[in-house]
Amino acid sequence: MSTLAISSPLRHSHSEALTVSQQAGKYVQKNGGATSSIPLPFFSNSDSAELWTTYENLLYSCLRTGDDKAAHFCLEKLAERFGKNNERVMGLRGLYQEAMADDSPAMMQMLQEYDGILSEDPTNTPIKKRRVALLRSLSRQGDAINALIELLEASPTDIEAWAELSELYVSQGYYQQAEFCLEEILLSAPNAWNIHARLGEVLYISAATSQDQIGSLVESVRRFCRSIELCDGYLRGCYGLKLASERLLAAVAPGNSTDVVTSTGGNSSDIPIPSIETLQKLREKVTSILAESARKPTHNDPDPPDIAAAKDLLKSSTMLQQR
Length: 323
What we know:
By secondary structure, the chain is mainly α. The chain has helices at residues 14-22, 24-31, 49-65, 68-82, 87-100, 104-120, 125-137, 141-154, 159-171, 175-188, 193-206, 213-230, 235-252, 276-295, 305-322; strands spanning 260-261, 273-274. It has a two-stranded antiparallel ribbon with strand order 1-2.
């Protein structure tokens, strides 16, 4: 068994994905003969769940880096082991064929194939999800939203589907619907700090067009604070909290000097508006966290995106203060 280390390919940077895919040749050469018809609970060391998870992750990384030959080999090994009619294998084959599609007609052909599969088996979740992804690639966002709603009616606890639907709603400017989707995720994963931060971002964006701008900003600040509480120093949460607190300060500055301003101060929600002093302390605290993160040396050139964004935000804030 190879010791090839693979984490989730969805978390790989481009360079990490390339490194993994470059190891594919040696890995499949060493493990290429490992197949068995024995059920999963009786796997031996040469036919383990880890082996097939590695094949799947290699498939993702190879597709991402354009190594179509190695990706096809991994796909065929999975199909040989679990069968071509296995739902997960069918979803992976769809992913591979989408990657090989050269133009819109080829993608439309894939869509027809998905429709055919679902007409025979409407419960095939991997194909449903591939169909949603394909609709998005074809810029048919409305159809993708409808497909996700249908999927969630059958599987209302599918966190990935709720997250995907939220992003689709945001892309179409339906912010309240996007907030609802993110709140559904938090019902299943209440301590997901990244979802709290994303909800804060959506609320911050929607405040520009909301009839209750202050209420949206107050809730945005609360969500960003919660994300940092759950993950100390979480840069995305800190970045959003700095923006939201500064914007809320600008909105409530005239006349709000009490410790807490209730909904009569212009906020139609039940959440009290923090005092100006509290908002200023939040801003100062989060600015110091961002500054500390920006000063830390990194081994990457250029800086990682989150560090680069923090530096840009601090620089722009400094320029505004100097004016």
